[in-house]
Design brief:
Layout lengths: L3 H4 L3 E4 L8 E5 L8 E5 L5 E5 L4 E8 L6 E7 L9 E3 L6 E2 L6 E6 L5 E6 L13 E6 L6 E4 L4 E6 L6 E5 L2 E5 L7 E5 L2 E5 L5 E6 L6 E4 L2 E4 L2 E6 L3
Antiparallel strand pairs: 1-2, 2-3, 3-4, 5-6, 6-7, 7-8, 9-10, 10-11, 11-12, 13-14, 14-15, 15-16, 17-18, 18-21, 19-20
């Protein structure tokens, strides 16, 4: 399994217009000297707000009102995600009750629920191998399983809260918050982002094979941004 800390790449979260937050949340989980920072909307200032020697942070997400944030936590050089952390800038974030192994928080539009990716860490022949999506109260509590695909990641709520889009393998799917209505939106796609009116979904894809980026001996195809109708 790839190290959890390495999976927390440079991720930024921008608050919705008209909310309390005016800054970009930026994390760099691969840099042992970095944690979570606020970057002003003009890029002029960067203010660290969270840093721990033994923990990497990634995939931060502002609450809909821009007052709180949720962020993934992981062992700095380990292979396990911890609990989600929730807090306000300037205050120490607290673990959200709901267990370990959670990543990629996504707030529902009304701010009452957080979707997350849950990674299994039990070992043995009977241990689950799926990477699933769960929903839990923004106040914490037992997570409720939303999907149980082989590898479901990158949850993204529709603006009206009626669906959660997510990446399953090499395609984007969507499902209602009660777990019904599962459907495929588009193939060869990942990283869904809804348009403000919910009619379209932007996504990344490597379908055009448009160049490669290499780091040492490891190379990957450069993705591009496409847009599709949300109804498929």
């Amino acid at each position: 399994m790839r190290r959890a800390a390495a999976a927390l790449a440079v991720i930024a979260a921008l608050a919705a217009p008209g909310t309390a937050a005016a800054d970009l949340l930026v994390s760099d989980g691969d840099n042992p000297r970095a944690g979570l920072s606020l970057v002003s909307d003009d890029g002029a200032t960067r203010t660290p707000i969270l840093r721990r020697d033994d923990t990497a942070f990634g995939r931060p997400a502002w609450s809909p009102d821009g007052r709180r944030y949720a962020v993934s936590s992981a062992e700095r050089f380990g292979s396990k995600f911890g609990p989600l952390l929730v807090g306000e800038p300037g205050a120490e974030p607290q673990p959200l009750p709901g267990g370990d192994g959670l990543s990629s928080p996504a707030w529902s539009p009304d701010g009452t629920t957080i979707g997350a990716v849950r990674f299994p860490y039990r070992r043995g022949a009977d241990a689950p191998r799926v990477v699933e999506l769960v929903l839990l109260s923004a106040q914490g509590g037992e997570p409720r399983v939303l999907t149980t695909g082989a590898y479901d990641t990158e949850p993204a709520w529709s603006p009206d809260g009626g669906e959660v889009a997510f990446t399953r393998g090499t395609a984007i799917h969507a499902v209602r918050p009660d777990g019904t209505g599962l459907r495929k939106v588009v193939d060869d796609a990942f990283g869904a982002a809804w348009s403000p009116d919910g009619s379209r979904i932007a996504f990344a894809t490597t379908r055009d094979r448009n160049g490669r980026t290499c780091f040492g001996e490891s190379c990957s195809v450069n993705p591009e941004i496409y847009v599709a109708n949300a109804d498929g």
